[in-house]
Specification:
The complex is a heterodimer of chains A (86) and B (532). With 86 residues, chain A is mainly alpha-helical. Chain A contains 4 helices and no strands. In chain A, helix 1 runs antiparallel to helix 2 and helix 1 crosses helix 4. The relative contact order of chain A is 0.19. The mean pLDDT of chain A is 85. By secondary structure, chain B is an alpha/beta fold. In chain B, helix 1 packs across helix 2, helix 1 runs parallel beside helix 7 and helix 6 packs across helix 7. Chain B is globular. The N and C termini of chain B lie far apart (62 Å). Classes of the chains: A mainly alpha (86), B alpha/beta (532). The interface between A and B is medium-sized, with 29 and 32 residues.
Chain lengths: 86, 532
């Protein structure tokens, strides 16, 4: 499964209560829509770090990196690429 | 004697320094003079719409300066403000509305949608222009911006000091939220102490990160207004992104902050606690739950120039009841005390199960007495009697004691240490949650026979999360469960992990053996079993 689908499935199941309503599209604004809130962000961080074995630092914990599934998955892309290069 | 009401502080500062900024939220700021005028208008409108003394008025608004206008307007109308969480599920909101029967509602175009059918029951006030408000709700609505003829007279206040100022709803173990009733006098005693103890003055800029439906906001709003300081509201997205929050704190040059411990931990985890940052901030008050000593050490080592205070206090005793000034770097193994009673007339005692005081060094239930105690839960005499007992130590008739349910001990130096709960209440992100409330809702889901809810280490930093052990049919789908809970409980109460067991362990008497479940979870974590 592509990163974005893995992330989407976590968002649907853990942050949106699963099943109900349409799953968010890649470019849907997750923070503005209230899908990611102060509880959701911590759950999401824990999930991303565990699932993709990355560490997301405070400098990366920015609205632009978490605005949409697209931006989260490109953050994960960058982080995992760095890891394979290292 | 004229009663001293919380809105008097606003009026006092509006007279002295009308142009000083009272509240800002990053996109809008409002002076003391303007806040006074707008809240007058709101009060006059509410009264005209039939709101009378001690009626409840609900507000449900995104975090902004409008929340403060709403609060002051409601108080000036002699009414009681009831803040609701715009993110709470509709059922919960409906339940609270049903229970407190508001005489009016303050909301905006986004939050009116959470209040199904309300506009037929109560008049609605919106902070912005009516033209932005959905058309179907306009007929029974009034805009705060509307220059309608409300007269120039200040609204006449008829409240006494023991009249209620707010009702805050907290989690209740029977599945029904409890409304804690707090009076003007309750708040005043707290603010009298806080403003003096922390030396808050007109030059201060008070950072507010707590939601208004949360007791922590009492300090933010009323200490600022008393001191004539500026209340700087951090909007919710800022609290999601610690680097942005730090930027906001620096841009607004905040000087004092009472924050929930989990946010201090989150900031440390995100790596934004760095030397040289937020130079204006000189007093950090943390509250809401225990702060890990390791995180406090990180903050204190990074910012040796700032002062740190641990504040403890249940909503039922209004804001903070005990406090502890952290004198210097604690030892890593040390528990940070919650300190000694603050506020005029507040007494605490530690009682054993028979209601007798325990000797120093031994654990007992922390009980609080004094004039800061709430009169009880709204429309719930049963729960009120269970939590507010008559004070066995007092010679004064009618003196009450609030049983916090927290276990604590008194050290030889007189400071009190919090050590845990005597029941299954948990603290998550500063919110008080009765695990039974979640369990009851879980058991209402088809196929779930038993449920036990815990706070566990998430395995990420110092962050904890809520987990539920479930006994039920093998076909249970976590998505269904999650989906059903989402309709019933606010997000912070929904477990992040569900662990299925064929049978939950039980004691000889048939009760769920919570200690065995804890052990089981610890083993699972050790074996790195994926519980998700």
């Amino acid at each position: 499964m592509a990163f974005r689908d893995v992330i989407r499935s976590f968002i649907v199941s853990d942050l949106m209560g699963g099943g109900a309503g349409e799953p968010p599209k890649d470019s849907d604004l997750l923070i503005e829509e209230g899908i990611i809130d102060s509880f959701g962000i911590m759950a999401l961080l824990g999930f991303l770090e565990e699932k993709f074995a990355i560490h997301i630092s405070g400098d990366e914990l920015l609205p632009e990196n978490f605005a949409s599934i697209e931006s989260i998955s490109s953050l994960v892309d960058r982080k995992t690429e760095l890891r394979t290069e290292a | 004697m004229t009663p001293r009401l919380m809105q008097n502080d606003l009026e006092e500062n509006a007279r002295r320094r009308p142009d000083a900024i009272a509240v800002l939220d990053g996109s809008r700021s409002i002076s003391y003079g303007e806040l006074s005028r707008l809240s007058d208008n709101l009060a006059k409108y509410l009264k005209r719409a039939g709101v009378s003394r001690q009626d409840r008025v609900v507000f449900i608004l995104p975090r902004s300066v409008h929340c403060v206008t709403a609060i002051l307007g409601i108080l000036k109308a002699d009414a009681v403000y009831v803040p609701l969480d715009p993110k709470a599920p509709k059922e919960r909101i409906a339940r609270i509305l049903d229970e407190c029967r508001p005489a009016a509602v303050i909301c905006d175009s986004s939050t009116i949608l959470h209040l199904s059918g309300i506009s037929e029951k109560a008049p609605v006030v919106v902070p912005g222009p009516l033209s932005e408000f959905p058309e179907e709700f306009r007929s029974n609505a009034f805009s705060l911006e509307d220059p309608a003829d409300l007269g120039t007279q200040e609204p006449l206040c008829r409240n006494t000091e023991t009249d209620l100022a707010y009702i805050l709803y907290t989690s209740g173990s029977t599945g029904r939220p409890k409304g804690v009733q707090i009076s003007h006098l309750n708040i005043r005693l707290y603010i009298d102490w806080a403003v003096e103890c922390f030396g808050i003055d007109p030059g201060d800029r008070v950072l507010g990160t707590a939601p208004f439906h949360f007791d922590m906001s009492t300090f933010d709003i009323f200490a600022s207004l008393r001191a004539g300081a500026t209340f700087c509201i951090a909007t919710e997205p800022l609290t999601l992104f610690p680097a942005k929050l730090v930027e906001f704190m620096e841009a607004q040059e905040v000087t004092i902050w009472k924050g929930v411990s989990s946010l201090l931990m989150y900031m440390a985890r995100a790596g934004v606690v760095r030397k040289g940052r937020i130079p204006s901030l000189n007093r950090v008050l943390f509250a809401g739950e225990s702060l890990s000593t390791a995180v406090l050490i990180e903050w204190m080592e990074t910012f040796p120039e700032k002062k740190f205070f641990n504040i403890y206090g249940p909503t039922e005793a209004t804001g903070g009841s005990l406090y502890y000034r952290v004198p210097g770097l604690p030892n890593p193994g040390e528990r940070i005390p919650i300190g000694v009673p603050c506020k005029a007339g507040t007494r605490v005692c530690l009682l054993d199960e028979e209601g007798r005081p325990v000797p120093d060094g031994e654990a007992g239930e922390l009980c609080i007495a004094g004039p800061s105690l709430s009169r009880g839960y709204f429309n719930d005499p049963e729960k009120t009697v269970a939590s507010f007992i008559s004070d066995p130590m007092s010679r004064e008739p009618g003196e009450r004691l609030y049983r916090t349910g927290d276990l604590a001990l008194r050290r030889s130096d007189g400071n009190i240490e919090f050590i845990g709960r005597r029941d299954n209440q948990i603290k998550y992100m500063g919110y008080r949650i009765e695990s039974e409330e979640i369990e009851r809702h879980l058991m209402s889901v088809n196929g779930v026979r038993e449920a036990a809810v815990f706070l566990i280490d998430s395995g990420v930093g110092e962050v904890q999360e809520i987990a539920a052990f479930l006994e039920g049919e093998a076909t249970l789908d976590r998505r269904n469960i999650h989906g059903e809970l989402k309709n019933l409980l606010p997000a912070y109460m929904i477990p992040k992990r569900f662990i299925y067991l064929e049978k939950l362990p039980r004691s000889d008497r048939g009760k769920i053996d919570r200690a065995a479940l804890r052990e089981l979870f610890a083993n699972m974590a050790r074996n790195d079993v994926q519980a998700r």
